[in-house]
Amino acid sequence: MKIKQLMTHSVIILSLLKRLKKELTISIFLFFFGLLNAQNGSLEGVVKNKKTDEYLIGAHVAIIGTHLVKATDHTGYFYITNIPPGSYRLQASMIGYEPATQEIVISSSAALQVIFLLEETIIAQPEIIVTAEKLVEKTSVSAQTIDGLKLRGFHGLVEDPLRTLPTFPGISSVTEFSTWLCVRGGAPNENLWLLDWVPVYWPFHFGGMKSSFNSEMIENVELYTGGFPAKFGNKLSSVVNIMSRDGADDAWKGKATVSLINAMALIEGPITEKSSYILSARRSYYDLVIHREGFTIPSFYDIQAKITYGLAPDHKIYISGLLSGERALVEFEDPDDYPKRIQDRYVVATSSIEWKWFVNRNLYSTLAVTFQTADMEFEMDQWWIDGEVHEPGVREDLTWKPNDVHTLKMGIEIRHPRVDWKTFIPLDPFYENAWTDSSVQGSRRDTHGHYWMSGFYVQEEWNIIPNVSTNVGLRYDYNNINKKGTLSPRISARYELDVTTALRSAFGYYHQIPTVDELGENPNLDAKAAIHYILGFERMITSDIKGWIEVYQKDYSKLTTFDGSGHYTNNGFGYARGAELFLQKRSAPFSGWISYALSWARRKEYGDETETWFEYDQRHLISIVVDYEFAKTWRLGMKWRYSSGSPYTPVIKGIQDTLGNWIPVNGEAKSARYPDYHRFDVSLHKKFLLGGLESHVYIEILNAYFRKNVLGYTASYEDDGTPIQEPYYGLPIVPTIGISLNF
To answer: What membrane topology does the UniProt entry give (predicted)?
Structure first.
């Protein structure tokens, strides 16, 4: 029996989701009026570097066996409230330091005061690899922080940190070859990609097959699959905020890696006593060793760097940048084939200079100047695209924490994109020489312009009573492309039933401006809109096992569609709703997680005549990830993923034109489904010394049980026009090996 047939109560869940909007209001009301146990206690303290006596920012402080977790602020200070009286173990940890634990006794009297002195370490401990959500706001729902060390442990063949994200609830990739993400029934272009808070235009290589991010450069990833706060704007579905790590400040270090896809080198170390750097370069190499006339093996590269400089104890400067590019050339010799030539080239650069100023214990500021550029060329005979985008920008964020009850955040950003985009497409692509005849008529569109985009937000994190907290925010965005603004109110709340159990909810408006191409055709288009409704329950089952359940509803409106004459309008609409389950064991030697998502997604947009199943609708998503460390130097990784088939429009017959070419005739839109998809990957990792250098080798097998997953169909026709569907498949069984050296 198929997995999707096991969900016999889907209809019941669907009806419950339709009532979510009404129940959410009641739930938030209950949050605000939860009863407080007046006998609970609290604790406060600081975390410092034992050697230098420096206060540590962002250290992770947790009461073991509960969900009570805090991150230290810019003065190394933390404060935890609503702790039932009793004995506990309190742990402080931070990447690059040995974790420290203290036995504490909580009473209902004055707050207990604690001081942690952490010792620096070279080897990261397993406990640090699985640090909990220390950056995401306490009241955020559908959010978590993934540590960079964990991402590096799972990157495998393509060494891509984003390959791990589809194993989390509600996230799927467009295809198994792609790192484009679909989040909770949303489209890939509804996701906000940030690198150190700077939007990244195109963070992919080869149309999405591989991301531009090097896992060795990542400190952590903030992932929001819905209900994200007001500081994030201009996207409808999700946020992926990738934070790069600082270079080592104690000694010069390096790393070199070779896999079947690419080679990578990294170097880091101190510049002065108060500054450090980190630099990595990665490149595919097949084009350097294999040469064939008329064919250039596709190649890519990316270079990432970061400099950290402490001007003074209260001032820090960060300079970071990412440069990535790719190129490919294919020329076909058969005179009967077309196109004759395909060429692709692009270069994307993202850079920023950030100044953090800790004004005082209660106030700090982050000012960033950013710059992005993208240069793209694509040619397929007479069809070509040539485009450039240059975008300088500035962003200022302020955080004011007058006391332990209120935290006020506000910020403003201004961007100035300059676009120069030209395209040419043959009017009749079925004309025999449409792609090769230089005299053929075509449609050319040139887009040129200088635009302004701005956003302002304010949000208040308020601990109403010790076990009830909220995040209330408002965001305003404006652009001079259509000269329209959007107002986006948002609220999330959290009610802690006890030290191991909490309820959480969120509601908010989200907007996304149409593309420059869409606004060029119709400058009166409004921003696309979505309303998020989320309700969740989380529990610390044991000291290292955590689970949560969430249900959600997203209502879409003002989606871009076509009217009868082919012009863009805002008449599109739709919805996505679902339920998600996540269970995670976080401590070595045996760790991992299980996720399940049930969802429905329907839309009317672009060429749809009526509301249909959305092309990225998938009823069930299941992931099982296991990581087992044994014999100190060995690690076994396993990953299994299942997804229901997505909808497609079938071809019901073919009609021949006067030139004998078959023109497909489609059936009912999105009325067929691809077969279910599932795949099992396994990897074995070994650490050892090679010539005195710490080394790491891995063997990985993708699609270990050789599942033939159907990715699509190609159509041929009988003489009477009856279509013959031939499936094409995804990855076969793929063994691979890689090695890295640390020096």
So the answer is: Multi-pass membrane protein
Residue 697 CA to residue 740 CA, distance in Å, equals 6
Q: Which residues contact 544 (CB under 8 A, 6 or more apart)?
A: 585, 586, 587
pLDDT for 433: 55
Q: 464: exposed, middle or buried (C-beta count within 10 Å: 0-12, 13-18, 19+)?
A: middle
Reported in sequence order, the residue ranges of 361-416 that DSSP labels E, i.e. its strands, are 363-380, 383-400, 406-415
| CATH class entry, domain 32-242 | mainly beta
What 8-state DSSP symbol labels residue 646? P
Let me know: does 486 contact 236? Beta carbons within 8 Å: no
Residue 388 buriedness (CB in 10 A; 0-12 / 13-18 / 19+): middle
Token pair recorded at residue 495:
């009610």
Q: Which of 110-119, 461-470, 681-690, 730-739 has the lowest mean pLDDT?
A: 110-119
Residues contacting 658, CB < 8 A, separation 6+: none
Cα R_g (the chain), whole angstroms: 27
**Segment holding 24, helix H or strand E:** helix 20-32
Q: What is the pTM of this model?
A: 0.82
Beta bridge partners of 363: 360, 400
534 closest CA partner among 568, 565, 500, 492: 492
SS3 341: strand
Segments of 513-566 assigned E as strands: 528-540, 545-562
* Cα of 458 vs its chain's centroid, Å: 23
Neighbouring-strand partners of residue 439: none
Q: 363-406, pLDDT tens digit by residue?
A: 989 999 999 999 988 887 777 888 899 999 999 999 999 988 89
Partners of residue 347 on adjacent β-strands: 325, 375
- Tell me whether the omega of the peptide bond preceding residue 229 falls within 30 degrees of 0, making it cis: no
- What does each C-alpha distance from 99 to 31, 126, 251, 610 come to in angstroms? 34, 10, 21, 57
Confidence of residue 572 (pLDDT cuts 50, 70, 90): very high
> For the residues 288-303, what does the mean pLDDT come to?
79
